[in-house]
Amino acid sequence: MHLPAFTKFGFRIRTRVGMTVDNLLIQGRDESEARRKLQQMYRDCEVLECVCQSGNGRNPSTSYEEILGMLSR
Fold it and tell me: N or C, which end of the chain is more exposed by having fewer CB within 10 Å?
């Protein structure tokens, strides 16, 4: 039996009470399924950012400028 391929999606959200939550990782067959799962856990949240994660947990196309931006936060 062949299992469906899942991808991890990293979300940054604002909850309905205004808190920002970073680095929520949710698996799904595609982004829409991952967003649906996110909405089930965090009702009425606002998605600020969604990033597709590679299989090893790293984004292979991360640029030097993006890394510097993450370090300067």
Answer: N
